[in-house]
Design a protein that fits this description.
The chain is 59% helix and 9% strand. With 409 residues, it is α/β, with parallel strands linked by helices. The protein has two domains: 268 residues, NAD(P)-binding Rossmann-like Domain (Rossmann fold); 136 residues, no CATH class. Strands 3-2-1-4-5-6-7 form a seven-stranded parallel β-sheet, with helices on both faces. Helix 4 links the parallel strand 4 and strand 5. Helix 1 crosses helix 8, helix 4 runs parallel beside helix 5 and helix 16 runs antiparallel to helix 17. The structure holds nicotinamide-adenine-dinucleotide. The site of nicotinamide-adenine-dinucleotide has 31 residues, from helix 1 and helix 6.
């Protein structure tokens, strides 16, 4: 199993009880397997009875009886959640982990999607996680121990509105709960898998592809850097749960978690980090040039790098773009466009001689973001020569930004 390639032992989650919603197939099933590999017992809270039973049987056959328990559950139905909780508390006496994996993928343009599809999606993709939070968080907080996980997707995307809107809401639900449970020993975060050929996504993706005028394979090809197998995606979910404290209050992805855990997975070689390719000109910049440059030269260098980077980000595929823009905002506090406007405003102030102290904070944030890019690079680039070269280039960007800060000071 992919999870066995990491530095985790099979007692990591020993004694923990995990509810995985929608674990009858796809990524949920694989996440349940990986959680069991890490030592947990899993409750398969699945609406499809046939798949739920098969998943339970398969896991118990693979890992030994008693590791998986199927409880038929429609996550959007409050009564079902109550019944499932009663079964789980009676059998195990507690719940340590809730993984909100269940989903439905209603696809189509907003103007064509029946309101019933929005209601249906809301039930599974948002109402369900809220019901699970209401039911299990009080017990977790009382025991000062627990992990509550939401599952995100790419964010706004054409023809995926009735799905993505509630997935995005799940990110904010997790952020809200994370702030509310701060310091209680309960950890809350969101994780997205990447793109995975699961039964649900093959069905939903085919519809989106045809609305976009392409084949499903072409859609996957377009997003090949974000592709991940269901097993790897599930392993990423399980590892993030094992490291819940680290990811508390954050949104991460299986790809990122596996890289950070130094676990290789299929397609990894094709997957490039969101670190942009530097231009030849930047590569030739020498470190001692920085000190000798004027404020306007430093400004030009910072601006040039930023424009090149943001242009590069825009050319990334949809899923990577969403990830980069969230990662950028999380690390700098402002959006990519806001940073560009801020830098332009700095240029105007320099031209007119207006005060520039207000620009010091965003410039420091930009330098910190480049530093964060270096950390990401270190966690995935295996080619040492390439790593060294790219770290050096980013060093140059950091130096430029810091030198500009000094000059403005
Ligand atoms: N596959 C991808 O490329 C992809 C991309 C981004 C995000 N995701 C997310 O990953 C997670 C897993 O997706 P997947 O691709 O494995 O989906 P899938 O459709 O293959 O599996 C979803 C499971 O949820 C179950 N389910 C549906 N409604 C339910 C309900 N009311 N109550 C309980 N269970 C219910 C289904 O029966 C199914 O077993 C989802 O949260 C999805 O949004 C997947």
């Amino acid at each position: 199993m992919i999870i066995s390639k990491g530095n985790f032992n099979q007692d990591t989650l020993k004694g923990e009880i995990a509810i995985v919603t929608g674990a009858g197939r796809g990524i949920g099933f694989e996440a349940a397997r990986s959680l069991v590999w890490l030592g947990a017992q899993v409750v398969i809270a699945e609406v499809n009875e046939k798949n739920g039973k098969i998943a339970e049987e398969k896991i118990n056959k693979e890992f030994g009886g008693g590791k998986a328990l199927f409880v038929k559950t429609d996550v959007g139905n409050e009564k079902d959640i109550g019944k499932m909780a009663a079964v789980v508390f009676k059998k195990f006496g507690k719940v340590d982990i809730v993984l909100n994996n269940a989903t439905v993928f209603p696809m189509g343009a907003v103007k064509d999607t029946p309101i019933a599809s929005w209601d249906f999606s809301y039930g599974v993709n948002l109402r369900g996680p809220v019901l699970l939070a209401r039911k299990f968080l009080p017990f977790m907080m009382e025991r000062k121990h627990g992990t509550f996980v939401c599952v995100s997707s790419s964010g706004a995307a054409p023809f995926m509105g009735a799905y993505e809107v509630f997935k995005t809401a799940q990110v904010e639900l997790a952020n809200t709960i994370a702030a509310e449970v701060e310091g209680t020993g309960v950890y809350v975060f969101t994780i997205g898998p990447g793109i995975s050929r699961t039964p649900g996504f093959m069905e939903g993706g085919a519809k989106v592809a045809s609305l976009m005028g392409m084949s499903l394979d072409e859609l996957f090809e377009l997003n090949k850097n974000a592709q991940i197998s269901p097993e790897a995606a599930g392993a990423g979910f399980a590892i993030a749960i094992a490291l819940a404290q680290k990811y508390h209050g954050q949104e991460t992805s299986s790809i990122q978690v596996l890289r950070e855990a130094k676990i290789s997975f299929a397609n990894e070689e094709e997957t490039e980090l969101q670190t942009p390719t530097p231009s030849q000109e930047q590569q030739s910049q020498e470190s001692d040039q920085v000190e000798s440059r004027s404020v306007s030269e430093l400004y030009e260098a910072v601006m040039k790098t930023y424009i090149e980077q943001s242009e590069g980000w825009k050319k990334r595929n949809l899923f990577e773009r969403q990830w980069i823009s969230r990662d950028f905002k999380k690390n700098t506090g402002i959006t990519i466009d806001e940073m560009q406007m801020t830098l332009k405003a700095l240029g105007n102030s320099l031209n007119t001689g207006a005060p520039t102290t207000e620009f010091i904070k965003p410039l420091n944030q930009l330098a910190a973001y480049y530093l964060h890019q270096q950390e990401q690079l270190k966690s995935f680039e295996k080619n040492l020569k390439k790593l060294e070269e790219n770290l050096k280039i980013i060093d140059g960007w950091i130096r430029d930004a810091k030198a500009l800060v000094q000059a403005l000071n």
